[in-house]
Structure formats: C-alpha cells, structure tokens
C-alpha cells in the first residue's frame, strides 16, 4: 500500500485537525537492564534447570503498519496505526 507523506488528522494538543508528517515507525533496541527484561529472565531461569522457553511455531506473515505522525503546528508526535495487516507499505515520494 502506498501512503501519502502527510495526512490531515486529529491533534490532541491543538484540539483540531491539522496536517501531520508521516514517518515509518521502527522499534528501538531492547534494553537488557529494563525492568520487564529482567523480570522475564528471572521467570525463565527460575527453579532447577529453569523453565523452557516459549517458542512460537507459526509466525505472523504480515504486520500492521505503524507510523509516527508529527503535527505541523505544535510538533507533537503520536502513533498512527492502520488496523489492517499488509505485506508491504511505503510512503509516496
Ligand atoms: Zn498539534
């Protein structure tokens, strides 16, 4: 699917519809010392020999595209998610 570079959508801060710049969202590197990571490690290393790791047999083939939308007026950023799975998504030039 091709997405336009900017869309007009609601901004919480401006309390109105404004133009937003779209950018594809990529998750950052997970932190090894974050609380959730430490908790998960503890969970799997518990007991004698530890717990078996949960393995996903069938991975999802597609992702719901997530964008970062930046308001052109106040520069506030928010997530812009299309609630449909698709294989390919790109921003229009
Ligand atoms: Zn705004």
From TrEMBL:
Per the record, the GO terms for biological process are: translation
Provide any one GO MF term from the record: structural constituent of ribosome
Q: Is Ribonucleoprotein among this UniProt entry's keywords?
A: yes
Highest taxon of the lineage: Archaea
Q: Where is this region: Disordered?
A: 28-48
Question: Sorted alphabetically, which keywords does the UniProt record give?
Answer: Ribonucleoprotein, Ribosomal protein
Mark out the compositionally biased spans (Basic residues): 36-48
The cellular component terms of Gene Ontology attached to this UniProt record, alphabetical and capped at eight, are:
ribonucleoprotein complex; ribosome
Q: Tell me which family the UniProt entry assigns to this protein.
A: Belongs to the eukaryotic ribosomal protein eL42 family.
Give the protein's recorded name.
50S ribosomal protein L44e
Which organism encodes this protein? Candidatus Iainarchaeum sp
